[in-house]
Amino acid sequence: MPSDEIRAALIRRLCISSAIADEDIKEIEALPISVRQYPAETAVVRDGERATDCCLIADGFCARSKTIASGKRQILSLDIPGEIPDLMSLFLHVMDHDLSTLTPATLGFISHEALLKLHRRRPVLAEMFWRDTLIDAAMFREWIVNVGQRPAPARLAHVMVELRERLRIIGRVDEGSFEMPLTQEQIGEALGITAVHANRVIRQLREEGIVELHRGRVTVIDERRFLELADFDDRYLYQSPTL
Amino acid sequence: MPSDEIRAALIRRLCISSAIADEDIKEIEALPISVRQYPAETAVVRDGERATDCCLIADGFCARSKTIASGKRQILSLDIPGEIPDLMSLFLHVMDHDLSTLTPATLGFISHEALLKLHRRRPVLAEMFWRDTLIDAAMFREWIVNVGQRPAPARLAHVMVELRERLRIIGRVDEGSFEMPLTQEQIGEALGITAVHANRVIRQLREEGIVELHRGRVTVIDERRFLELADFDDRYLYQSPTL
DNA sequence: CCCCGGTTCCAACAAAAGTTAAGGACGCCG
DNA sequence: CGGCGTCCTTAACTTTTGTTGGAACCGGGG
């Protein structure tokens, strides 16, 4: 994948939540990005490491997670193409969590230095990136609610809808089906339940004819009951800056 | 409380995680702040509202929370003097959660306009506030892990230690005891458990001689076992910008 | 001073989730 | 094509947590 396409993915996404001037787009296009391929299930940055670059996902799925002393792991977010999951490392240099690939992925690395220079030159872009980290935080808040208050089947549905809405923006949902390349173990880690229980929940949703999950692909069967179960409100996801 | 003292609380906290130049401090001191008193258990900003000011806590405790369709409420953070819990509203104007007081509180309101102007004048301060929102996000990540992976007693201990460490910075811990002005109902909402279970957990920690919780005040009995249970790593809380 | 409302506390029972264990499906590699 | 490993699947049993309901406590207001 050429480096241009990678920038394009980023710009496309940024344009959705902010209006960007042409000259600013050019600035982004001029950002030096070094591209690297990663296999599935590989750490990109680890908890405790000091980051000097931010990682733009050009293709593939990633996840952020933290592991506690007991060895249990909690997935904090699923990250998709066009996103910069570790933008926070720009100012919080030492990582407080892991970033790793779920699938084989194409990642573009942008140095902190280049980003900071860009911010100085174009404060508007700095604000846009700041906004981006704030939406990230909003997603964490919703994730807390999901794990803390919803019964397990609703948790799964909620994560699915959120992922679908985000994939929809980048044109990766077709005919009510979309990718969610997690093992049941990982689904459990995302929902704060065990893999066995995750399996129970998946089966239940299938038996009730709500949603099908097979080989990392989600197919919604009964849209109405699916949305009802998920209790999803997209307000936190995309908010126009003009609001 | 005079408006000077309020600014002082903010500056003191900001100085801890960043080095600020004298002229920048002066800029902050020049910020127009309008002070208001709030009774306990009162909404400051509500989910869905459009914010035009940010709220600096001068005195008292606040909490952020979200309520889902079923009526269940999840507390997302506990907020203490010196903090600006809704700084995110600067760019995410419509609130995605509630901010309310736990105790009677003195709050200082700073208009978005004034903050944005300050940022234009002093980009370094903008970065400092950005950093602040990033630490906020780091705390959300840890909160997700707490609710998602730790057994209930550890969850309680973890929230207690986090609060204590933050209170310590502002000089509000004396002799191993500190304020945590939550009802058991609210503790449940913070930990993602019911009030009844919260009560069980509190009793258990008391019976095991680990920590005492009485009338909104926490007294640690066995520091070693307390820390061990909490599984606390302060890395996410304060990170020097020079790191 | 006493009553009232909100906490705190507790017990018994129900439901949800964790644990352990084991068989089956599937893809990959030799 | 057969074997191996990973994931999925399921069942039986245990533990944790939720639910319901009620008693004791406590502080503030009449």
From TrEMBL, chains A, B:
Residue ranges constituting the HTH crp-type domain according to the UniProt record: 150-224
GO MF annotations, alphabetized: DNA binding; DNA-binding transcription factor activity
A GO CC term assigned to this protein in UniProt: cytosol
InterPro entries assigned: cNMP-bd_dom, cNMP-bd_dom_sf, Env_Response_Regulators, HTH_CRP, RmlC-like_jellyroll, WH-like_DNA-bd_sf, WH_DNA-bd_sf
PROSITE patterns: HTH_CRP_2 (PS51063)
Pfam families per UniProt: cNMP_binding, HTH_Crp_2
Matching Gene3D superfamilies: Jelly Rolls (2.60.120.10), Winged helix-like DNA-binding domain superfamily/Winged helix DNA-binding domain (1.10.10.10)
Residue runs in coiled coils: none
Assigned keywords, A-Z: DNA-binding, Transcription, Transcription regulation
PANTHER family: CRP FAMILY TRANSCRIPTIONAL REGULATORY PROTEIN (PTHR24567), DNA-BINDING TRANSCRIPTIONAL DUAL REGULATOR CRP (PTHR24567:SF68)
Protein name per its UniProtKB record: Crp/Fnr family transcriptional regulator
Biological source species: Bradyrhizobium cytisi
